[in-house]
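MOLECULE: protein
FOLLOWS: sequence and fold
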Amino acid sequence: MLAGIALLILCSAFASGSETALFSLTATDIAQMEEHNPRPASRIERLLGGEAREYTLATILVLNNLVNVGIVILSALAIARTTRFTSPVWEFVFTSVVVTFILLLFGEILPKVYATYNNRRFAAFCAPVIGTIGAVLRPVAWLLVKTGSGIKGRGRENLSLEELSEALDVTEAHSEEEKQILEGIVSFAGREVGQIMRPRLDMTTLDIEEGFTRVKEVIVASGFSRIPVYEENIDHIRGVLYIKDVVPHIAEGDGFEWQKLLRKAYFIPEHKKIDDLLEEFQAGKVHIAIVVDEYGSTRGLVSLEDILEEIVGEISDESDPDGTLYTRTAEGEYIFEGKAHLGDVERALDLDEGFFDDARGEAETLAGLMLEIRRGFLKRGESVAFRGNGSGDSSGSAESAGAGAAGMASAMELTVLSLSGHRIEKIKVKFNRN
């Protein structure tokens, strides 16, 4: 009888470990198993693919419960035959405590811990056995699956960003552009407005006291379709001027009261998630928002185009003077605007995502990165250097975003080319080959 109990405990451990090992496998795990051991990997895919996944779980649960019931029954018989208790209460307590402890320790906890740290090996071992047992217990598993489906109704499965990233790693996109779009979608939800906004120093704005002639000059020079309007200073935004509202009055003189055309400004906090903002833009038919800090001061501006660029990359139109983010010198160096966003620089130079993470601190732009590294202001011609967190993908062409140079080294040197006061306007980026 003790041998039977021990055998059933092993079966319980096998079922518990199988559940943990099989259902902790990620798409990356299975893809790597296919490279080294394709036969077990194909069995696992059959067990976990589509509707079979629910039948596999039902099979394991039925097996585990049948075994556990058997353990309880045999243990109770064994204790009754070998031990005499003075009180039925003590007999019940002893039987419950001992059997539960052994069952939890050896049938649940230990095998699940082992399977968690050895999920691939355990899954490869258990897959053929679970497949065979599944064929035997198919009628019972079918009943559980159908019952569970009725309870579950039309609920949807939620995937984490980590799971989506792992799925993307094993996805074969038709082109590099498609892969970049997929990566943008995966990282989209975690980004905040403050990471993509146009800072206040780069905002094109209008003073509410300006004459209409000056307003038309700013409109033509900027090329923007919407311009924030302030009173006294940029921290007091009074509205947004839509250029399409100005067009019918373009022939008016300097005395025209253009202020009556202002529309209400939409204000948002700098830590707002951009996926939430996109929903608000869609619901309110808004295309531009003013970003403010905790004190109500203007931090910057974010547009619908800025959000979409996080998915599809840089969008250039007829108002953009140049479609590229940088210029490349004959020496293979790159000239960037100081306000260039670090994420855009990573994509432009084909660097690994997070290349600047070890040095960026709170910086969002290339100029901010230099200040973060130096911990002070820089003069024209001064440089800072650092080693990036990983290297670029050297598989890209040298013509496309300078991938060749970026892919050969991760040591980067940044040099100030021009300043406006303390503001860094132009930066030279140079890669030092290892």
Q: What stands out?
A: The longest helix spans residues 52-82. The first strand starts at residue 198 and ends at 199.
